[in-house]
Amino acid sequence: MFLTLIAKGILIGLLVSIPLGPIGVLVIQRTVNKSRMAGLLSGMGAALSDTVYAIIAGFSLTFVIDFIRAHEMMFQVVGAVVVLILGVHIFFSNPVKDIRRNRLRGNTHFQDIISSFLVTFSNPLTVFVFLAVFTSSGVAVSLEQPYHSFFVILGILTGAFLWWFSLSGIVSLFRHKINLRILWWINKTAGAIIILFVLITAIVVAQKGLGS
Question: Which of 5, 69, 89, 159 could crosslink 14 through cysteines, CB 3.0-4.6 Å?
């Protein structure tokens, strides 16, 4: 019973983490620019944020969900601004200066975790993703007791960790084959992808608003 719940949680954690949104791009960029540990910890910051929302969804904190639903537009605007600032910063950053700075003062792993956590947490609509996954996968029906949610949450955190560990590891294997010119293009591409993601999201939200 418990192993089944953990296994389902791992699957959910993988499904939510695998799509390469802004955080996936950020993990790749930091793994290349800094180190595998920096990329992994950036992914774990996102995983912790997802876990918080999974807890909210798993334990059905309706007053939080109602608050998010009531202020959905405000959350989307704030989240878009945060992610946009991140994309612009990456786009205009100099990878050579970043590498020298990291060598001089070391990797600020705490900042890696916190920044990715805040970027992911700035999109509280994630809670509805987990609610949809919980109901569609039958996990919600499997929770006969409230404490059973803990096993699903543990599985989600494990699944997310497995994905970010794998992604940072794969990128790290090819990291030393990348020269400064390619690194420069990676920064530009990563920043552009994140900015484009925000613009597309804004267009979709605007269309929904006009449609309603």
Answer: 159
| H or E stretch at 209 | helix 180-211
State the Cα–Cα distance between residues 53 and 106, nearest whole angstrom. 32
Amino acid at 194: I
153 Cβ neighbours under 8 A, 6+ residues apart: 9, 51, 54, 55, 58
Evaluate the CA torsion angle 85, 114, 22, 24 in order and state its sign.
positive
CA–CA separation, 197 vs 106, rounded Å? 31
**E strands within the chain?**
none
Cα distance between residue 82 and residue 118, in whole Å:
9
Model confidence over 121-161: pLDDT tens digits?
Answer: 877 667 777 776 666 555 554 555 666 778 888 888 999 99
